[in-house]
UniProtKB/TrEMBL annotation:
Transcription found in the keyword field: yes
UniProt-listed Gene3D superfamilies: Chorismate lyase-like, Winged helix-like DNA-binding domain superfamily/Winged helix DNA-binding domain
CDD domains from the UniProt entry: WHTH_GntR
Lineage of the species this protein comes from: Bacteria, Pseudomonadati, Pseudomonadota, Betaproteobacteria, Burkholderiales
InterPro entries noted in UniProt: Bact_HTH_transcr_reg (IPR050679), Chorismate_lyase_/UTRA_dom_sf (IPR028978), His_ut_repres (IPR010248), Tscrpt_reg_HTH_GntR (IPR000524), UTRA (IPR011663), WH-like_DNA-bd_sf (IPR036388), WH_DNA-bd_sf (IPR036390)
Keywords from the named record: DNA-binding, Transcription, Transcription regulation
Domain HTH gntR-type residue range list: 19-87
Superkingdom of the source species: Bacteria
Keyword NADP: no
Biological process per Gene Ontology, one example term: L-histidine metabolic process
Protein name in the entry: Histidine utilization repressor
Amino acid sequence: MNARAEIAAQPAEAPRRTLPAYEQIKRYVVDRIADGTWKPGDMIPSEAELVKEFGVARMTVSRALRELTTERVLTRVQGSGTFVAPRHYESPVLEIRNIADEIMSRGHRYGARVLTLDRSDDPEAMAALDLAKGPVFHSRIVHTEEDEPIQYEDRFVNPHVFPEYLQQDFTLETPNHYMVRLAPIQRAEFRIYAQKPDAHVRRYLEMEIGEPCLLVWRRTWVGDLVATSVQLWHPASRFHLTGSV
């Protein structure tokens, strides 16, 4: 039985047939990982194989795999294939806090350097924001504590939720504070990784080669819309997460 027939043959999952084809493929992949058919590190079928299996266009399969890669469910290795990502431990109880408030609560001086504030047609960003077309808004900001870089923020923003985002001065108010002030967050999704930064991030965080970062990936919703997708890079030697339940 092929994948398309397998999905259609499961009565309990009949509602998924009304989903867009790329979402059906995403759920098929996630289900195979969840039931242990595909384990962390396993190579999944190629795009060409999935095209044949589902009877859809290649761009449909490509979108499904691209979104799963953005969501860290899969990893794609150029020239090798697509693999199930290693398991990562997640914390469901993280509080969304403003980095400026955290720094000032310690009695320290906060600062910000805006590197990018512009429009973007990045396909992975549009997928993360669940938008069919762009542009979306993009900002890159380095946050400092006592003039020392403590966080590199790489954020994409849904222009339908925050249409005046690009007109803000984020040296005076953080994006987090601005967005929460305008529209309370209804839901958030987090993932946390220990990861080495690329040369660009490492340079702005003034890190040594080989030094790891604590990377927090987060999406937030306002109503039914994904409002923002952000990667927050922190030098592991200068930052730690705390929380309580």
